Amino acid sequence: MRQLHILLPVALLLSACGMIDGNTDGPQPSRTTERLPAATGETRQCLANLSSRGVEYRRLPDRNFANGCRAIGAVQLVQVGTPTRNLGAMTCPLADRYARWTREVLQPAAERHFGEQVSLVETFGTYGCRNISGTGRLSEHGKANAIDISAFNLSGGRRITVLNGWNNSDSRERRFLRDLHRGACERFEIVLGPDANADHRNHFHFDMGSRGPYCR
């Protein structure tokens, strides 16, 4: 695992997500046939990486919203191999890391602890125009650069939530969720979970912000 910063602004620990109500996505880039802007070299490479891994995606037009919110160089994931609910606009690097995490961390952990596959990932969404709670600083969600994950459904019918599973008496659920968290810390810039603060008691927050790496 990469060396993690010890000191970060207190606001980061307070919340990277703000209030979570289960449906936090704000205005989405519209489904449109308008001509897409030319991709930067970095974005072209990222899109090529997605395609080479068999990830299906739809490129979205660049959008700027009020209050500095934006979705630039974003995609919407169509198929990463693991069905995922409530995915909206995501920057290409975030989408690429998420696709890798599902294949390299999520599914192997489910097989290891339960002998099953994850059949569905439940999320609170990606894009949402809001500030970090208690600050005037724009959340990574306002840049389509973060995802909040709340629960996992296994092929055998078991549903594991971050809220109830993190300290569950079932040690398999505890170990499973901690493996997912640890693997995310090796792939995303900032990872927050139930041990970060009360705002994250019911979900994992993964983002590609420039203030990382940080894992809590």
Could you outline the blueprint of secondary structure elements for this entry?
Layout: H1 10-14, H2 41-52, E1 56-59, E2 63-64, E3 70-71, E4 74-79, E5 84-85, E6 90-91, H3 92-114, E7 118-125, E8 146-154, E9 159-161, H4 162-165, H5 171-185, E10 190-192, E11 204-207, E12 214-215
Helix pairs in contact: 2-3, 3-5
Identify the notable features of this structure and list them briefly.
216 residues; alpha+beta; 5 helices; 7-stranded mixed sheet; 3-stranded antiparallel sheet; Extensin-like protein; Extensin-like_C; 22% strand; Zn_M74/Hedgehog-like; Muramoyl-pentapeptide Carboxypeptidase, domain 2
Low-confidence regions: 1-16, 18-34
Rough outline: globular
Straight-line N-to-C gap = 13 Å
CATH architecture: 2-Layer Sandwich
**Average pLDDT taken over every residue:** 86
> Main β-sheet: number of strands, strand sense, barrel status?
7 strands, mixed
Q: Work out the number of β strands.
A: 12
Can you put this structure into words, describing what you see?
The chain has helices at residues 10-14, 41-52, 92-114, 162-165, 171-185; strands at 56-59, 63-64, 70-71, 74-79, 84-85, 90-91, 118-125, 146-154, 159-161, 190-192, 204-207, 214-215. The chain is an alpha+beta fold and 216 residues long. The protein has one domain: 2-Layer Sandwich (Muramoyl-pentapeptide Carboxypeptidase, domain 2). Strands 5, 7, 8, 9, 10, 11 and 12 form a seven-stranded mixed β-sheet that branches. Strands 1-4-6 form a three-stranded antiparallel β-sheet. It has a two-stranded antiparallel sheet with strand order 2-3. Helix 2 (41-52) packs parallel to helix 3 (92-114) and helix 3 runs antiparallel to helix 5. The radius of gyration is 17 Å and the shape is globular. It starts with 9 loop residues before the first helix and ends with a strand.
